[in-house]
Amino acid sequence: MSQSGKPDRQTLARLFSEFIDPEYVIADEETQKPYECDGLSMYCEMPLIVVLPETLKQVQQVMKICHQYQIPVVARGAGTGLCAGAMPHKEGVVLSLAKFNQILDIDPLARTARLQPGVRNLAISEAAAEYGLYYGPDPSSQIACTIGGNIAENSGGVHCLKYGLTVHNALSVEMITVEGERVILGSEGLDSAGLDLMALITGSEGLLGVVTEITVRLLPVPEKAQVVMAGFHTVQAAGDAVGAVIAAGIIPAGLEMMDTHAIHAAEAFANAGYPLDAEALLLCELDGTTEEVDQYIERVEQFFLQQGASSVQVSGSEAERAAMWKGRKSAFPAVGRISPDYYCMDGTIPRSQLARVLTEMQKMSAEYGLRVANVFHAGDGNLHPLILFDANVPGEFEKTEAFGGRILELCVEVGGCITGEHGVGMEKIRQMSAQFNEQEIAQFHRLKQAFDPAGTLNPGKGIPVLKHCQEYRSLPSSDTSVMPLTHHHSAGDHS
Amino acid sequence: MKDLTLQLIDQVCQAYQQRTPLMIQGNNSKAFAGRTPHKNKAKDNVSTLSTAAHTGIISYQPVELVMTARAGTTLAELRAALDEHQQILAFEAPDFDGQATIAGTLATNLSGPARPWTGSVRDMVLGTRLINGTGEYLRFGGQVMKNVAGYDVSRMQAGALGTLGVITEISFKVLPRPEYSTGLTLELPASEAIVLMNQLAGQANPITGACWYRDQLHIRLSGAARAVDKTVTSWSQKYGFQQATQDNFWQQLQHQQLPVFTETGALWRFSVNSTADDLAPAVHQTGIEVSDSLIDWCGSQRWLRTPETLAEQQNTQLQSLQRLAENARGSVTLWQGGDRSQEINQTLNPVLERLHKNVKQAMDPAGILNPGRLYSWM
Ligand SMILES: Cc1cc2nc3c(=O)[nH]c(=O)nc-3n(C[C@H](O)[C@H](O)[C@H](O)COP(=O)(O)OP(=O)(O)OC[C@H]3O[C@@H](n4cnc5c(N)ncnc54)[C@H](O)[C@@H]3O)c2cc1C
């Protein structure tokens, strides 16, 4: 034991090894290294211990021990998060759910799947395919990210406009509280008794409990899906085209926009046949019965031409449709190839503000001397500006962060928000005060306390600590400062 | 169109200072919802806080699919505005004679037949402004489709019956009106209907309603005209459905005007796994007579009408129905009737009860907002 009464690394490792295979109690730096960051590798930290329990009982016991000694716990799925939400705490335990990777049950009649948290997002749809079903939310990271991480971040994907976010598709979770107790939130009905705690847990970034099982709804695979791809000479025209589709009462399954930098990067990466002369590209997918898709696809084509599209192409086969999406879904790594590093932002704006935001962003881009490429979930207003930079140039990451921060503040200014799907984590904690006032942030803290009075679950993330609020307990010796300190590493590849 | 925000804040601040309970209401169209904790309001020092006059649509952008309205705005008013742009409140909440307000609808989380397909009022909420139990005026979420900054306090108001805050303003997603809608019917016993409706929902067809009532399975199809027509033809041939002519079944279902909602006695609501077997026979077996029952939401929502409960038996009945609900992987509420000073909602386990109390404490530390409306202990 250390002087503070907390077990030191070796003692804690011994305690865990009493009930967990010692191979999965990782206390040495070398083996811990892969856990030092999530997808946002500019933020990293080494933990005290990484532990990979295999049973619910083991998770509960880890939580009880950490609770007893007030040791921070950071739950971890696949580590693809983009807000440093899964970044370790230097005095804490990383609780990896990687071994909880079983699909427990698929009920084809009820159209539900019961899953362990470490199941990969795409694996759900793959397993459901034999029943003609799939899981709706499809983050671009779906090959790797886990359903537990999706719950924690309320993840979205390119099909969210029509099929909703994680919060719309999750029915129930089993959660272990900070004290190590098991509780079930939600039910297999469409609502449940008492307060809607599912709403609170979804998107809570591992700050309120550790999710150990999830029941999600599955959807029937549409009979047909087809994409209209259109190039435009201006972003404004592309934005208007989106508005025209929605105003006509058509809700596309996916509606994505890319700007010229993103088009070029994605085309070089995926050979999707994107029009390289366009300033903006729209991918509009319609799905449903064959009749519905045929009826609407014609109209969408018309709208795009009326709005001055410079090129319009309809996917003629599944292969063509897949190719069109491949470019979009690999846009992040593709941009990663045209620049040493990139930094992905995640603001949401009212769609009508798109042209204004992009213009302002171009001005800032010139001001900071940093290029920016944009991919945009145009249907639901979620903008991903990718700032291109070189981490080896001294001061460039700091400049990038400042630029990014201003983009998010701009999003709030035009009526939007600082994060549409990636979460706040450690990364956007400074921008929280652009979107919320002190009373609102204090309210978040009280809700956090309702679940985690000592503040040991993922401390320092999600909700900024108010400078002058003495009433909020902080961990004895942890980094709950208003501006958390982070080391900056090489930015690397995000995927 | 009136903005009474400042008055509402004042009233909550005063009640907080004096530690006196507030009974929050809009047009009081859902007075039946939840418990009736106060036998004697004067004695308990209860005052009414009304959002009825706090009305008006603040913004509506059809191309953004987003509307923002003050708490007391009626659904009828919202629908009229949406109608001009061929848009709808996709959650199809009941109107209660034109009296239902948007905040009351959210607080009771009431949604109509399309709920399994297009989502509930809870699903459509994008943001709220609310007054917490200490009189602070707060804003959560926003007017955009996606927002994961901070906890989703807005969505948590759904079904909270005003126990966590006075909702003053709501932003929500709206959807285009489907191009075409039609109904199908088929005579079928309940347990077969439950299986069939779930099978149909597993097929990729434009289904937006599946309900069983009095030996009839009702299916509603909405969407692109060609797609609906094709499904009508194929399901009629395959299963023997009749196309409903000129009926207002779906309207009556949405607005809770069918006899099962208006008869006398007690009305129980089960929210369960959609494939759970018919609950009426099982309820019968516990010794409670079922006089009418309706299965909505493709099997997920079951309404059972029973004779008025006797006060001294109510808790035993609730407990036995709770066991049935739990077997069906869901929960039960005594929706209407009975002694509403007793518990009417499913008992929560101790951990969940503690979390509920903590959340209530976090939002309303003095316990002045609709105390006892959801559970006696919060
Ligand atoms: C190339 C790329 C593309 C992406 N595209 C998208 C996209 O389209 N849409 C989108 O929404 N996101 C996207 N993301 C972000 C990321 O994939 C999602 O946030 C994802 O949900 C994270 O899942 P994970 O399993 O990797 O979680 P992690 O990164 O391991 O963890 C994320 C957060 O969840 C918490 N957590 C994890 N598991 C649990 C649990 N069981 N209980 C409690 N808390 C837990 C962690 O503490 C952390 O705060 C992308 C990321 C990359 C790298």
TrEMBL record, chain A:
Keywords: FAD, Flavoprotein, Oxidoreductase. InterPro entries: FAD-bd_oxidored_4_C, FAD-bd_PCMH, FAD-bd_PCMH-like_sf, FAD-bd_PCMH_sub1, FAD-bd_PCMH_sub2, FAD-linked_Oxase-like_C, FAD-linked_OxidoTrans_Type4, Oxid_FAD_bind_N. Its cofactor is FAD. Transmembrane segments: none annotated. It comes from the Bacteria. One of its GO terms (molecular function) is FAD binding. SUPFAM superfamilies: FAD-binding/transporter-associated domain-like, FAD-linked oxidases, C-terminal domain. Residues 43-221 form the FAD-binding PCMH-type domain. This is FAD-binding protein.
Automatic annotation (TrEMBL), chain B:
The keyword Oxidoreductase applies. Transmembrane segments: none annotated. It comes from the Bacteria. It holds the Pfam family FAD-oxidase_C. Residues 1-177 form the FAD-binding PCMH-type domain. InterPro entries: FAD-bd_oxidored_4_C, FAD-bd_PCMH, FAD-bd_PCMH-like_sf, FAD-bd_PCMH_sub2, FAD-linked_Oxase-like_C, Oxid_FAD_bind_N, Vanillyl_alc_oxidase_C-sub2. One of its GO terms (molecular function) is glycolate dehydrogenase activity. Coiled coil: none annotated. Its EC number is 1.1.99.14. Its cofactor is FAD. PROSITE patterns: FAD_PCMH (PS51387). Keywords: FAD, Flavoprotein, Oxidoreductase. NCBIfam families: PRK11282.1. This is Glycolate oxidase subunit GlcE. It comes from Oceanospirillum sediminis.
